[in-house]
C-alpha cells in the first residue's frame, strides 16, 4: 500500500476528524503504528512536567490527567503512543449492552483526541468464576477487538497487581487477560497492601518478592513479550507507634480486603520529596540488605518519629536488569511526574539517574 493510500485509509477510519487536528503538522494526528522492541511505559497525571521527560526512551504515555493536545502532538512527533485511561465499575458492564456502549464511548473518545489506545486500570476485587470475572475478560477481549479494528496499530494494556495470586482479592483470569491484551502492566509496588504478619513498615517493592511475582506470571505461560514491569517512583512515609532498638517501626493497623494491616497506614510520597527529606533526617539513607531497599527515619515538627521506605537507582537496578534477563517487553513507572525536574544541579542528576536506570545498569 502506498503512503497516499494509507493516509486516505487512516483519515477514513478516523472519521474525518483530522480536520480538527491541533498539531502544526497534520500527520502528527495519525495513530502511531510502529512497534518498539523495548517498551518504556509512562503514566502521566497531568501538568507540563512531560516536557522534561527523557523522550529518547519513552514509547507509551498513559494520560491519567486532563487531556493535553500539546502532549499528544509531542508524543507523536517522538514516535510514542498516547493512550486513554479506562476505568469502569465491573458490575455495570456485566450486561453486554452496557459493555458495548462503554467500549464505543472510549473508542470514539480516543479517535476524537487522536490517541493510540487505552490502558485499562480497574484494580477491583473480583471473585473467581463470578459474573464480574467473566465480564472483565470479555471487556478486555472486546475492547482490544474494537480498538484494533477502528484505530490501526492501537495498543490495549491492562494493569495487574504484582502477583497473579488473588492479591487484594483480584482473582482475575490472568491467562485470558494476557491473551487478549497487547500488554500486561505489572504494578510491582504497593506490595504491602495486605500485611498478614507483623504490622510494621516495610519496603514498597522488596526485590525477592517482586521478582517472584514475575515468575508466577510466566508460569501461567503468559508471553513475556507482553509483560511490562512497573516500578515505583514514590515511597511510603509511616508514622511509628514505636521504634525498636533494631529500627523496626510498628504502624497503625489499617485493614484492607481481609488483611489486618496495610500500607494505607502510611502516606505516599514522591521521589522529589524523599530526596529532600532524607538530607534532614535523623539517620540519613539506610539500606535493608534483606529487602534490598533504602529507608530512613525522621522526626516531624511535633516530635513524631517516621520511617520512609522508597526505591532509588540502587534498588531499581536489579529489577531493571531482570526485565532483560527474563525477556520481558519493557519497564514503566508510576508516575512520570513525580521527579524533581527543576534546574537545581543536584535534582537534575538525581532525575537523570532515575530515567537512566530504566534501561538497566
Automatic annotation (TrEMBL):
Subcellular location(s) of the protein: Lysosome
Domain spans labelled GH18: 1-361
Predominant localisation class: other
Leader sequence residues: 1-19
Pfam name, any one: Glyco_hydro_18
InterPro entries, sorted: Chitinase_II/V-like_cat, Chitinase_insertion_sf, DIAC_cat, GH, GH18_Domain-Containing, Glyco_hydro18_cat
GO cellular component: extracellular space; lysosome
Keyword Hydrolase: yes
Keywords: Glycoprotein, Glycosidase, Hydrolase, Lysosome, Signal
Entry's Gene Ontology molecular function annotations: chitin binding; hydrolase activity, acting on glycosyl bonds
Gene Ontology terms: biological process: oligosaccharide catabolic process
Signal listed as a keyword: yes
Main function: Involved in the degradation of asparagine-linked glycoproteins. Hydrolyze of N-acetyl-beta-D-glucosamine (1-4)N-acetylglucosamine chitobiose core from the reducing end of the bond, it requires prior cleavage by glycosylasparaginase.
Annotated family: Belongs to the glycosyl hydrolase 18 family.
UniProt name for this protein: Di-N-acetylchitobiase
Species of provenance: Periophthalmus magnuspinnatus
Amino acid at each position: 500500500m502506498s503512503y497516499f493510500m494509507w493516509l486516505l485509509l487512516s483519515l477514513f477510519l478516523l472519521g474525518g476528524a483530522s480536520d480538527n487536528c491541533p498539531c502544526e503538522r497534520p500527520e502528527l494526528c495519525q495513530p502511531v503504528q510502529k512497534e518498539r522492541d523495548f517498551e518504556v511505559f509512562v503514566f502521566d497525571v497531568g501538568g507540563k512536567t512531560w516536557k522534561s521527560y527523557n523522550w529518547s526512551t519513552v514509547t507509551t504515555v498513559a494520560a491519567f490527567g486532563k487531556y493535553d493536545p500539546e502532549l499528544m502532538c509531542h508524543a507523536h512527533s517522538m514516535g510514542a503512543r498516547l493512550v486513554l485511561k479506562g476505568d469502569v465499575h465491573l458490575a455495570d458492564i456485566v450486561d453486554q449492552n452496557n459493555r458495548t456502549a462503554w467500549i464505543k464511548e472510549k473508542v470514539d473518545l480516543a479517535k476524537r483526541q487522536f490517541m493510540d489506545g487505552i490502558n485499562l486500570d480497574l484494580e477491583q476485587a473480583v471473585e473467581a468464576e463470578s459474573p464480574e470475572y467473566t465480564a472483565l475478560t470479555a471487556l478486555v477481549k472486546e475492547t482490544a477487538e474494537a480498538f484494533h479494528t477502528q484505530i490501526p496499530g492501537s495498543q490495549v494494556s491492562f494493569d495487574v497487581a504484582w502477583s497473579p495470586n488473588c492479591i487484594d482479592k483480584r482473582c482475575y483470569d490472568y491467562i485470558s487477560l494476557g491473551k487478549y491484551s497487547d500488554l500486561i502492566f505489572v504494578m510491582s509496588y504497593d506490595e504491602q497492601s495486605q500485611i498478614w504478619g507483623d504490622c510494621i513498615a516495610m519496603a514498597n517493592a522488596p526485590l525477592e518478592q517482586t521478582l517472584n511475582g514475575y515468575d508466577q506470571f510466566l508460569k501461567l505461560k503468559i508471553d513475556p513479550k507482553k509483560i511490562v514491569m512497573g516500578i515505583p517512583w514514590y515511597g511510603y512515609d509511616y508514622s511509628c507507634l514505636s521504634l525498636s532498638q533494631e529500627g523496626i517501626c510498628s504502624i497503625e493497623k489499617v485493614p484492607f480486603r481481609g488483611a489486618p494491616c496495610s500500607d494505607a497506614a502510611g502516606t505516599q510520597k514522591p521521589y522529589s520529596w524523599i530526596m529532600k527529606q532524607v538530607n534532614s533526617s535523623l539517620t540519613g539513607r539506610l539500606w535493608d540488605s534483606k529487602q534490598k531497599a533504602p529507608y530512613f527515619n525522621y522526626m516531624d515538627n511535633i516530635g513524631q518519629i517516621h520511617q520512609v521506605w522508597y526505591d532509588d537507582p540502587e534498588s531499581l537496578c536489579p529489577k531493571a536488569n531482570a526485565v532483560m534477563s527474563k525477556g520481558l517487553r519493557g519497564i514503566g513507572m508510576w508516575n512520570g511526574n513525580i521527579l524533581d525536574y527543576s534546574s537545581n544541579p543536584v535534582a537534575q542528576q538525581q532525575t537523570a539517574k532515575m530515567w537512566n536506570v530504566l534501561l538497566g545498569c
